[in-house]
Amino acid sequence: MIENTILKANRAGRKALVFSMTYKDLWAVEAAAQAGFDAVSLDGEHGAFSSSDVDDIVRVANGYGMSVMARVPNIEPNTINLWLDRGIQGVVGPHIETQQQAQQLADACLFPPDGQRSWGGGRGTEFNDAHVLNEKYSGKLGFAKWTNRNMVVLAQIETKQAHDNLAGILTVPGLTGITGGPHDLAASLGHPGEPEHPECERLAADAARRARAAGKTVQSDMTASTGLPELIFSAARAFATAHRQDAYMPPQAAAPKAAARKAPAATRPKASAKRGAPKRARR
């Protein structure tokens, strides 16, 4: 396991640059590292990832010195375990609406004594290699404490009910902070398709203010994120705008060819004598 590079960037006084993904693309992971990103984020709720996909992404990202976090499909402990065992170091729990759900999320992400995370045998526990666990962390308990310190746990607040219960959610000790869900929040407030509605923006700003006041963080305070769709669309539109009026250069008419000179007809050698001609008599 590597040090959580999101938290490392935060300790250095800056937001972590995070590359967001919705499907496996290992070239994109390498490109993100080459471009200077700090971490990778996977959308397991709306994206398409198998466990082996997550394994491969974490393996490559960690090799390039980038941590991986993920929005998991749901907050069931066995679901979260499948992601943590692959080696992710941050979890966004979707649709957190109560203090009890926030506690369930934190418990699933953190090892005892801070939570109730189950011990697995994948990358998330150094493949349960006793030699590494003892040499690097002085045993399993040392590893558990190190892992908990390097874990980000965020509750996604995306409904009016979640906002109404925010005070209780923010009391959960193992919760790092919150993040938003503007489209679902708008729908829950009766403004479907209007994530920028003034009421939505007011509640989102209020949630962020209250989280900070409670000693929690807000994901947008920790990270600056983008992904392939945003990068491709912006670059493609910029290219199209820059070259939309490029003049077409038709091929020029070919220059007239010089009249070909007639080559002189080949002369045939004269025959020295006709066949069958009588010979002149000698005198």
Relevant terms:
283 residues; alpha/beta; eight-stranded parallel sheet; 13 helices; 8 strands
What does this molecule look like?
The protein is of the alpha/beta class. The protein has a single domain (5-241), classed as Phosphoenolpyruvate-binding domains (TIM Barrel, Alpha-Beta Barrel). The chain is 42% helix and 13% strand. It has 13 helices and eight strands. It has helices at 5-11, 26-35, 51-63, 77-84, 99-109, 130-137, 140-149, 160-164, 166-169, 182-188, 198-213, 219-222, 228-243, and strands at 16-21, 39-43, 67-71, 90-93, 152-157, 177-180, 217-218, 223-227. It has an eight-stranded parallel sheet with strand order 7-6-5-4-3-2-1-8. Strand 3 (67-71), helix 4 and strand 4 form a beta-alpha-beta unit.
